[in-house]
Amino acid sequence: MDMGTRGGTSRPDWVGLPGGLLRLRRLLLAFWAVLFAAVTGVVLGLTAGPAWAACGALWLAAAAWGWVLLGRNWRSWRYAERADDLLISRGVLWRAQTVVPYGRMQLVEVTSGPLERRFGLASVQLHTAAAATDAKIPGLVPGEAERLRDRLTELGEARSAGL
Amino acid sequence: MSPAGAEGVGVPEAVGVPGAGVPEAVGGAGAGVPEAVGVPEGVAVAAYERRLHPLTPLLRAWVPIAAVIGMLAQQGDRAEEWITELPVSLRFLVLVALLLVFGTYGLLSWWFTHYAVTATELRIRSGLLFRRTAHIRLDRIQAVDVTRPMLARLAGVAKLRIDVIGTDDKDELAYLAEKDAAALRAELLARAAGFAPAEAVALGEAPERALLRVGPRELVVSLLLSLGVLAAVTGGLLVPVAVWWFSASPWAAAAALLPLLGWAWSSSVGRFLTEYDWTVAESPDGLRLDHGLADRAHETVPPGRVQTVRIVEPLLWRWRGWVRVELAVAGSKNDVLVPVAARAAAYEVIARVLPGVDLAALSFSPAPGAGARWVVPVWWRGYGVAVSEDVFAARRGLLCRRTEIVPHAKVQSVRLTRGPWERLHGVADVHVDTGANGTVTARLRPAPEASALLYAQADRSRTSRATARPDRWMT
C-alpha cells in the first residue's frame, strides 16, 4: 500500500499536467480566432470597405492574449497524491485548492470526450458525499488517468469510512 | 456508498377516489393491525411481510381528487359546458366507472404493497404492474420520522419515513396504525443500533428523558422578535397597498397580495404551527423531536448522524439571550433542532448531538481588519473561525449572527479559494464540505493562516474518523 506514498503528509509533491491539454486548447483557440477573423474581415470588407476589414485582426489580438492566458491557466493546474489525501490546485486569478481525504471518496470517474480522445487526453473526477467537492483533474494521459483511478480506488477502499 | 434506497419505492401515486376505494376493507380506524403474510406474527426471527393500514387508499385519495378539482377549475366554463352536454345517465355511468377504476387500483396497490424488516434492512415491495423493491439498510439510517398529518390523526394512522441517503418521498410507509408505527420505529432503531432481532422486538420503545420544551408564549414572542417575520408580515401588507395606490387597480394589488401573503403566512403562522409545542428528548437511540399543532411530527436522529449544527442569533433575540439551533442530517429534511431557547439550554441540547464539544470554550478569531475591511466593508466584523479538538466552527453575520459547527469526522473535503481582490489584501476563504450538501465557509482568513488551516483541517478530518462512533452505535 505504500506505493506512491511520495512525500510526507506535510510536504506535497506537486505534479503538473502534460502538454496535451494546452495544445488542444490553443489549437481550438487558434481555430476559432482565425475563423472569426476571416468572417469579420470578409463581411466588413464587402460592406464597409477594405480599410474596415482590418478590424478582423482584433480577433487575432484577442487570441494572442488568450494564448498567454491559456498557458498561465495550464501551468496553474497541478495535483499531488499524499499518503492520505489528494491535493488539487488550480487557477491564476481565482485560485482554488482542494484537499480530499481518500477515505471520503465515493467514486472515481475517468472521462474522455471525442476531441480529448483524439489528443490522447482523459480527465479524472473524484466524487465525495458532498456535492460541493470539485475535485477534477483534466487533461491527463489516459495511462496516468487509469493509474490514478486504480490507485485512488484502492486507497479509498483501504481508508473508507461512512458518513 | 449507501446502496439502499437508490431505487425508490412507492405506494403507487394514483390512488382511489373518495368512497370508492375502500369498500369492506374499512373496518373502523382501529382495525389496522397489519396482516402477517405466511409466517404468523410473533415469530420475529424470520422476516414476515406486513401490509400498510387498510385506510391507506382512502387517505391518499385527496391527491387525485385535488388534481381533478384543480383541472376542472382551470378549464372553468369549458368543463361545465362539456359536462352539461352529456345526458344524465351517461354522467352517472362515467362517475361510477371512474370510481370503480380508481377504487380498484387503490385497493390493489394497497394489497400489493408489503414491507418487512430483516436483520439488516427494511424491505418495501410495491407496485401493481411495475414491481419495485426498496432495500433500506438499517445501519445507514440517518433519521426516522413519524408524521401524523391532520387527516391521519383523525383516522388514527401515521406515516413512517426512514431517511437514508438517496431516499425520496416515495420511500415512506404511509399509512400505518399509530401504535404499529411507533412499534416499528422502535424495532428499526433497536435493530439499527445492533440489537439481535428477537431482542429488538422485545425491547420496545427506548426510554426517553425530556431535555427541553418550548412553550407557546416563548415561541410567539420569538417569532414577533425576528426581523424576517416582521419584514414578511409588513411586506405582505404594505406592498399590495402600495401597488393599489400607484396602479389604482385592485386586481394588480390582489395579484401582488397572494404570493406575499403566502410568504408571510409560511414564515409566521406556518412556522408557529410546525414549531408549536417543540419537545426535545434524549434516548439511547438518539434525539427525539416532537412538534406541531395540526400536523404532529416525531423525528428521531440516531447518534452521530448530524453533519452540521447551525446556531442562529437574530438581532432582537440577543438581548433576551435566545438562540435558534438548526441541524443538517444527510438525506433528511429535518432542519430545526430547537426553534428558540435560552443559550445555555440550547448548548445542552447541542452537547447531546455533538458529544464532548464545549461550545462555550470555542474562541473565535476575528477576520484581520487591515485586509478584510476592503474586501467586505463593515460586515467583515461578523466573520470568525474557531477550531477545537472535535469541531470546526465558522461565524458570520452582523445583524443575524450564524455560527456553523462541523465535527471533523463529517468533513468530506476542504477547499481554499482566493479571488484577485482577496489576494491583493492578503486574505483567503476556507470551505469545508459536508455530506449533507452543505458547505461551511471561514471567510477572510489571513493567507498564511488559511493555507495552514487547509492542511490541518484535512489531517484532522482524516484522523478524527477513527474515533467516531460505529454505525451500529450499541455494538
Structural class from helices and strands of chain A?
A: alpha+beta
Give the strand line-up of the largest sheet of chain B.
7-6-5-11-10-9-8
Relevant CATH superfamily of the largest domain in chain A? Pleckstrin-homology domain (PH domain)/Phosphotyrosine-binding domain (PTB)
Order of helices and strands of chain A: EHHEEEEHEEH
Please indicate the count of domains of chain A.
Answer: 2
Strand order of the largest sheet of chain A: 1-2-3-4
Number of DSSP-assigned strands of chain A = 7
Residue windows where pLDDT falls under 50 for at least 5 positions of chain B: 1-45
Question: What integer is the average pLDDT of chain A?
Answer: 87
Principal-axis shape of chain B equals: globular
Number of helices of chain B: 15
Keywords (chain B): Membrane, Transmembrane, Transmembrane helix
InterPro entries (chain B): UCP026631, YdbS-like_PH
Organism (chain B): Streptomyces cirratus
Protein name (chain B): YdbS-like PH domain-containing protein
Commentary on this structure:
Helices cover 43% and strands 24% of the residues of chain A. In chain A, helix 1 packs antiparallel against helix 2. Chain A has helices spanning 20-47, 57-76, 114-118, 142-158; strands at 15-16, 78-81, 85-90, 95-101, 105-111, 122-128, 135-140. In chain A, the strands form two sheets. Chain A has a four-stranded antiparallel β-sheet. Chain A is elongated, with a radius of gyration of 21 Å. Chain A starts with 14 loop residues before the first strand and ends in a 5-residue tail after the last helix. With 163 residues, chain A is of the alpha+beta class. Chain B has three domains: 50-205, no CATH class; 216-275; 303-467, no CATH class. A seven-stranded antiparallel β-sheet of chain B has the order 7-6-5-11-10-9-8, sandwiched between helices. In chain B, strands 14-13-12-18-17-16-15 form a seven-stranded antiparallel β-sheet. In chain B, strands 1-2-3-4 form a four-stranded antiparallel β-sheet. Chain A binds chain B through residues 9-10, 84-85, 93-101, 103-104, 106-107, 128-135, 159, 161-163, and chain B through 1-2, 140, 142, 165, 305, 307, 330, 410-420, 423, 431, 433-435, 437-439, 454-455, 457-459, 461-462, 465, 468, 471.
